[in-house]
Amino acid sequence: MATLKDLIRGATDIKTQDDVEIPEWAPGVLFRVTGLPSGDWEDYHNKLSKMTRRDESSGIEMTIKSRKAEIVAKALRDQETDELVFPDLREGIAILSRRSAGIVGGLFLLVRHLSDEERDFTQKVKVAEADFGDGQS
């Protein structure tokens, strides 16, 4: 009998979406976009806000830097082979950072949706309860 840890380890809870077409980049090519695991989202949020100290009397300055290109580079795959489009993450970020903000932003929102990142904890619990049905304690 599988332990709870084994059940969690074997769960297929990361969603994907096939047939994503980006005609501005590759007409007629279909991409697969995947959700990302929680570790990637934690890294994203940790990098999103960066505190820097200024030498002037102004004290602390908050700098916010977008990392949407990083998330998209980690989630964009060739639909036929399931291989990452950008296996070299740095190169992918560099390339995507110079592409249309609208396209990269739209892909980012799709990855966020597939990762269930836009739902709050209460919504996630309600979905989990519905998925498992009544009788869970």
Structure characterization notes:
With about 140 residues, the protein is an alpha+beta fold. It has one domain. Helix content is about 45%, strand content about 20%. The protein has a 3-stranded antiparallel beta sheet. The chain has a two-stranded antiparallel ribbon with strand order 3-4. β3 and β4 form a beta hairpin. α3 crosses α5. The longest helix is centred in the last third of the chain and has 14 residues. The chain is globular and about 50 Å long. About 15% of the residues are buried.
Instruction: Order the strands across the largest sheet as they lie in space.
Output: 1-2-5
Order of helices and strands: HEEHEEHEHHH
Query: How far is the first residue's CA from the last residue's CA?
Result: 20 Å
Secondary structure class reads alpha+beta
- Say how many strands there are: 5
Could you list the spans in which at least 5 consecutive residues all have pLDDT below 50? none
How many helices in DSSP terms? Answer: 6
How many domains would you count in the coordinates? Answer: 1
Task: Outline the biggest β-sheet.
Answer: 3 strands, antiparallel
Overall shape: it is: globular
